[in-house]
Design goal:
By secondary structure, the chain is an alpha+beta fold. It has 16 helices and 21 strands.
């Protein structure tokens, strides 16, 4: 077995003799064989054990067993006592896995190590069939890879959303025993008389994976004795096909998943016209927490709809879809009075200044954050407020024609998120002077009859 594992490590480029390895050891036969094999092959090993305290004294005895074995081998030892209870919406098994991998990653990051787990070929077969039953897709079917795929680990950041699977989230994991079946591990253990402890929970059919391991997998091996070798070959082909798939998805992302300021834009027409629009949309948005039904809805929802997850929101527009993180704070909705004697008005997101000009300018700046108005039209106190349904104004350049702000926003492609943040400068008689940073009202423009002018500026 050692020769096969060493060849697999080299072929998959998992690590070298120069790397430092942190081996996750539960005390069970698989992890004890992994530790023995890596130590025998001369790699620089450390041992980490997680005690979840789920089996009382037996859990503590497991920890003592692993600790003593690491000391006998003269290896550095790390132990973490964890509590997987108290995670709302997470099973104990899921919570324990999350805690375990986080503990591994923390130690590995600090000490510059790679994390080795004892997953083997039968584990991969179990995961394949369990994920097949869950309709997990390509990545689920080819999960438990020897090391994380670059395209998966680079697909997201902590700011942009959570990764979907542990294999994606933890970049330092290596699985050098994926080339061998569990029977090979049991044979190796007997040949080398390697001590181990049996977890009593492995014998129960309470968990789905155990039921598969005890009843389904033996029948598959009875049906096809060469299942292990053939499965390994099939997994290799699947990984190669997935690599090609990921390459094509990356090309589509470069074209149709475009970063714009604080959000990502996906154009409507090319995506909807693609024969695999649903698959592409899944690749664009699922990693940010959107499920299959939400993505289906996004492709058919009416313009203006917003589809949300815990952290993200997807806005459906005429031109396409905008994806962004949810705003942590609600939009400021207060109305601010601006009396004549006050030259500056500070809001939470911007500062407005008002300055009388000594003479009428001969030229006006094109800066949308600076306007000059006819001062004789101003009635104090002015107001600054958010826009609301039913607001109208006379856009500069439309010869005094009225237009609803709703139509103005639509015509100028100002989306719902931006509208919620839009401030208005309002005259004392309730007439809108300025959609701040956007457009002046025609009735306040400077004309040949203007004798006094006032400049307004906004600083964000």
């Amino acid at each position: 077995m050692l020769e096969r594992v060493q060849s697999f490590i080299a072929a998959e480029q998992l690590f070298t003799q120069a790397d430092r390895l942190l081996i996750a050891v539960s005390g069970g036969v698989d992890s004890m064989v992994l530790l023995h094999a890596m130590h025998t092959l001369g790699y620089a090993c450390s041992v980490v054990h997680c005690n979840f305290q789920l089996r009382g004294e037996a859990s503590d005895e497991d920890a003592a067993f692993v600790r003593d074995h690491a000391e006998k081998l003269g290896l550095p030892y790390y132990e973490r006592v964890l509590n997987p209870n108290g995670f709302p919406g997470k099973s104990i098994q899921m919570a324990a896995r999350m805690q375990r991998y986080l503990a591994f990653e923390t130690i590995a990051q600090r000490d510059g190590k790679l994390i080795l787990t004892a997953h083997h070929l039968d584990d991969r077969l179990e995961t394949f069939w369990i994920n097949f039953a869950r309709a997990a897709g390509w990545r689920g079917l080819s999960s438990l890879q020897a090391k994380p795929r670059k395209s998966w680990t680079a697909a997201t950041t902590q700011q942009e959303g959570e990764a979907l699977q542990d294999e994606v989230a933890y970049t330092k994991i290596r699985r050098p025993l994926l080339c061998v079946a569990r029977q090979d591990i049991l044979t190796y253990q007997k040949e080398h008389n390697i001590p181990f402890r049996e977890d009593s929970s492995n014998a129960t059919d309470k968990y789905q994976r155990n039921r598969f391991r005890h009843h389904v997998l033996p029948e598959l091996y009875a049906w096809e004795p060469q299942l292990g070798q053939r499965a390994a070959a099939n997994f290799q082909r699947m990984e190669e096909m997935l690599a090609l798939y990921d390459e094509q998805i990356a090309n589509y992302k470069a074209q149709w998943f475009i970063r714009q300021d604080k959000h990502w834009f996906t154009p409507r027409e090319p995506l909807l016209n693609h024969p695999q629009a649903n698959t592409l949309a899944w690749e664009f948005w699922s990693i940010y927490g959107f499920n299959a039904e939400q993505i289906r809805q996004a492709l058919t929802a009416k313009i203006g709809s917003i589809i949300t997850t815990e952290r993200m929101e997807l806005l459906v527009q005429t031109e396409g879809w905008l994806l962004r993180q949810k705003e942590r704070e609600k939009a400021e909705t207060a109305t601010y009075d601006w009396p004549a004697e006050q030259r500056t008005l500070a809001l939470s997101t911007l500062v407005l200044t008002r300055e009388p000009l000594p003479e009428v300018p001969q030229q006006f700046t094109p800066d949308p954050n600076c306007i000059v108005v006819d001062g004789q039209r101003l009635l104090f106190p002015l107001q600054v407020r958010r826009w609301k349904a039913g607001d109208q104004f006379c856009p500069l350049g439309m010869d005094g024609q009225h237009q609803s702000l709703q139509d103005f926003f639509t015509n100028n492609k100002i989306n719902r998120w931006e509208r919620a943040q839009q401030w208005l400068l309002v005259n004392g008689d309730g007439v809108i002077i300025w959609i701040i940073g956007q457009r002046l009202d025609e009735r306040f423009k400077v004309t040949q009859a203007t004798s006094q002018t006032v400049q307004f500026k906004v600083n964000h």
